[in-house]
Specification:
This protein is of the alpha+beta class. The protein has helices at 16-27, 48-53, 73-84, 91-121, 128-149, 162-167, 182-185, 187-197, 205-208; strands spanning 7-11, 32-36, 62-65, 68-71. It has two domains: 7-86 and 203-208, Glutaredoxin; 91-197, Glutathione S-transferase Yfyf (Class Pi), Chain A, domain 2. It has a four-stranded mixed β-sheet, with helices on one face. The two termini are 34 Å apart. Bound molecules: glutathione (GSH). Glutathione (GSH) is lined by residues 15, 17, 45-46, 58-61, 72-74, 106, 114.
Length: 217
């Protein structure tokens, strides 16, 4: 049977990587449905079945559009921006600049926020050394983004692009899940968060994707 919606997104509520794509789908007004991945209790993304049938990299998110299955949130964002023209960087310079920020974010901003939050909230045991390392790196990298956002309302200038949507990854999860408050500690990021939140279609990750709160095991 054909799916009811144009897009399907393999995701779960606690995934900021998936939130980037869920948020984009919501902001562009796409018809989409979540496919919940039992990441925590079931370890679904690590199963041979998931790797064979959904994503050989064993990662969420995966965006399905007809016969196409895409992973890596940055790739999904580029695909959706190219298809719709929304939040798309224009011209070679802007495209390269956009990719530069998406890669920086994937590796050093949300790429550290995600594991930091995981260690604090979801890992079987706390890891003070790992947490301290990530926290130090985050202070530097969030500082770099904050400085950038003092110069313009959005990462690439006057209008939001998929670089901003990528940056939204883990940033809207409750501050209690970190032990700092990004919006307060980095005021330019805080002001940017309000601008992104004001875009029509914005919704919080816990509203947009299934699986919150986590069932107690
Ligand atoms: N760079 C990837 C990161 C994806 C990622 O790490 N997703 C996590 C869930 S939030 C995952 O599936 N991890 C599985 C694992 O590392 O085994 C993206 O942006 O899509």
């Amino acid at each position: 049977m054909a799916p009811a919606s144009e897009y399907q997104l393999y995701c779960f509520a606690q995934s900021g990587n998936a939130y980037r794509v869920a948020l984009m789908l919501s902001l562009i007004g796409a018809e989409w449905e979540p496919v919940w991945v039992d990441f925590f209790a079931g370890g679904e993304s690590r199963t041979p079945k998931f790797r064979a049938e959904v994503n050989e990299m064993g990662e969420v998110p995966v965006l399905v559009h007809g016969a196409r299955k895409l992973s890596q949130s940055g790739v999904c964002l580029i695909y959706l921006a190219d298809r719709t023209g929304m939040f798309r960087p224009e011209g070679e310079d802007e495209r390269l600049e956009c990719l530069r920020w998406i890669i920086f974010d994937n590796q050093k901003v949300n790429g550290f926020l995600g594991p930091y939050r995981f260690l604090r909230n979801f890992a079987p045991a706390r890891d003070p050394g790992g947490e301290a390392f990530l926290k130090g790196r985050l202070a530097n990298n969030l500082g770099i983004v904050d400085k950038r956002l003092t110069k313009a309302p959005f990462l690439l200038g006057a209008r939001p692009t998929i670089a901003d949507i990528s940056l939204a990854g883990y940033i809207y999860y409750p501050p209690e899940e970190f032990d700092f408050d990004v919006a307060k500690d980095y005021p330019a990021i805080g002001a940017w968060m309000e601008r992104i939140k004001a875009l029509p279609g914005w919704r919080h990750p816990y509203e947009l994707m299934p699986g919150h709160p986590l069932a107690k095991g």
